[in-house]
Design goal:
602 residues, mainly alpha, Fumarase C, Chain B, domain 1, Fumarase C, Chain A, domain 2, 2 domains, 22 helices
Length: 602
């Protein structure tokens, strides 16, 4: 049965529109947090506001723990030991919560101080041992949203302090490694909890980002004092509620899925551009073919690419094939929708899984404020996140392998349908400009293949045998973001090569009268937008030997132009999100009236 509601362009457009709406403020109510909200708070410094309803729910639940203790009830992690030591009992309930932080703050957080005696370091120690601030902000937001569910037994002051830290941009220094994501992300969350309390063994980034030198790493108590916040201790259950949950895995996964959705749509735009660069046919994307194999992802991808090619003067019709040319395109474009479709379906499911986790209460035990009953369970087991991000990482590998084939085909004169070898604009006997790109994309594709390996199958029993299964969600999510970065570099190289190929087609078609071709008159709807962004928005030119290695006057940041520098400019536009505006615009065109004729055929 075909899912007629499946629309990947709709998802791309919706998450971009939600991001635009939420860049000023995000309401926290335990139920409506979106992936775009997480991106807005973590990367664009949107403020947060806990709704009145959520505050009432938190307050109602917080009083139950006190009553249970007065009645002599045994509650895990409140008057018992932790994990495999839960057979221990104590009346020192507040002190017990403090012990939780000292047992969990065990990660390595190397500073970015100058190396000893000035010797070069093997690695950037800070980057290789600590999380980016955006990851920590995402984690804080998701933890806050979980507490807003009113089932964790914390005081309102704890939730409000988390919100204050976000709004005043006080961000804990958190170790990159050390979580197995079952019993939640205990160690990384303990660093956030330690900063919340102003512990002297914790550190936090504080200060303005707008003024160079004002953003710095301070001891947690100093960071709070500078912001006018008093130290806040944790009481019964509150330490456990702060550290026992999937917030770090879920928050970082939200950042990953946002990127992956945009990159999957970019892959379809690049595929359409590749068809044009090869003077291929749109026949492969005709709705008739997808209708006979009605997987929703394939149908959706065919619709999008068919729409992206609308108006192109480079697309060939089978009626006008020159003698001796291929009757059909090679696999990398002809079967693109069959290749992309399953990835889109996986990404949609991953998006749903991560969105659900963002609005889940994931600590243990949990409290029903209506009945007063305390439940001991395992919502901290983050397997849903592992499952989601491994689909994302595998999908990026599939899309990357497709882009690799497409890129090498337009560079290779044996397969590029009349373009010069290595896409050179000069004498091909002494110019080989894009040959290095051919090698580069092979290296990146190989690395993507390695990163696609599953993480979740490497589980080890931990913590006195108590944690016999654990999700490894945060480890898997980290590698997914690494794959996002590698894929972005691959897409950057491919996009530069495509713009070069399209300019060469424009030169051959006679649409330009000087040495600098302009391909816009002959391009399809999506290619025209992306090409214009690269050429005009990013100022990346048609590449010739006279351009690369040229004068510093034509340079970026006083560095003379090179193919690698142009790759970098495009890569940075992807990583900053600038290029995603073009992706969303193309997706909106595919979603709106430009595909009515396609939908009618289906």
């Amino acid at each position: 049965m075909v899912n007629s509601n499946f629309s990947f362009p709709k998802l791309v457009v919706a998450q971009r529109e939600r991001l635009d709406i939420s860049t000023s403020s995000v309401n926290v109510d335990a139920h409506s947090l979106t992936v775009s909200n997480v991106v807005a708070v973590s990367r664009y410094l949107a403020t947060v506001n806990i709704t009145n309803k959520a505050i009432l729910a938190i307050d109602k639940c917080s009083n139950i723990i006190t009553k249970k203790l007065e009645q002599g009830e045994v509650i895990y992690g409140v008057n018992t030991g932790f994990g495999g030591s839960a057979d221990q009992r104590t009346d020192a309930v507040n002190e017990l919560q403090q012990r939780l932080f000292t047992l969990l703050t065990v990660g390595i957080t190397s500073s970015d101080s100058p190396p000893h005696h000035g010797e070069p370091l093997l690695l950037d120690q800070a980057a290789s041992t600590t999380m980016p601030e955006s990851w920590v902000r995402a984690s804080m937001l998701v933890r806050l949203n979980s507490l807003a569910g009113g089932a964790s037994g914390v005081r309102v002051e704890i939730a409000e302090r988390l919100a204050s830290l976000l709004n005043q941009d006080i961000v804990a220094l958190v170790p990159l490694r050390g979580s197995i994501s079952a019993s939640g992300d205990l160690s990384p969350l303990s660093y956030i909890g330690a900063v919340l309390q102003g512990k002297k063994y914790a550190s936090a980034y504080s200060g303005s980002r707008a003024i160079t030198g004002q953003r710095r790493l301070l001891r947690a108590d100093a960071a709070l004092a500078e912001a006018g916040l008093e130290a806040l201790g944790v009481e019964a259950k509150e330490g456990l509620a702060l550290v026992n949950g999937t917030a770090v895995s879920a928050g970082v996964a939200a950042l990953a899925v946002y990127e992956c959705v945009n990159l999957a749509m970019l892959s379809q735009i690049l595929t359409a551009m590749n068809v044009e660069a090869l003077c291929g046919t749109d026949e492969s994307f005709d709705p008739f073919i997808a209708k006979l194999r009605p997987h929703p992802g394939q149908i959706d991808s065919a619709r999008s690419i068919f729409a992206f090619l609308a108006g192109s003067k480079l697309v060939n019709s089978d009626e006008y094939l020159a003698p001796g040319t291929l009757r059909q395109d090679r696999y990398s474009v002809r079967t693109a929708t069959q290749w992309i479709g399953p990835v889109l379906e996986d990404f949609m499911l991953a998006y749903e899984q991560i969105s659900t986790e963002l609005n889940s209460v994931t600590d243990n035990p949990l409290i029903d404020s209506e009945t007063g009953k305390v439940y001991h369970g395992g919502n901290f087991q983050a397997k849903a996140i592992t499952n989601a991000v491994e689909k994302l990482r595998s999908g990026l590998q599939s899309l990357g392998r497709m882009l690799f084939s497409q890129c090498t085909e337009i560079i290779n004169p044996a397969t590029n349908n009349g373009l010069p070898p290595n896409l050179v604009a000069d004498d091909p006997s002494c110019s080989f400009i894009f040959k290095g790109t051919d090698i580069m994309v092979a290296a990146l594709t190989s690395e993507l293949g390695f990163l696609a390996n599953p993480v979740g199958s490497h589980v080890q029993t931990a913590e006195m045998g108590n944690q016999g299964i654990n999700s490894l969600a945060l480890i898997s999510t980290r590698y997914t973001l690494k794959a996002v970065d590698v894929f972005s570099q691959l897409a950057s190289a491919h996009l530069l090569a495509l713009c070069q190929a399209l300019d060469l087609r424009a030169r051959y078609s006679g649409t330009t009268t000087d040495g600098v071709p302009d391909a816009t008159p002959i391009l399809g709807s999506a290619a025209r937008k992306m090409y214009t962004f690269v050429r005009q928005g990013l100022k990346v030119p048609f590449v010739t030997e006279a351009i690369v290695g040229g004068s510093v006057e034509e340079a970026y940041a006083d560095v003379a132009p090179s193919v690698g520098k142009y790759h970098t400019v495009i890569y940075e536009a992807i990583r900053s999100g600038r290029l995603y505006d073009v992706v969303a615009d193309c997706a909106k065109s595919a979603q709106d009236g430009k595909i009515r004729n396609v939908v009618a055929k289906l």
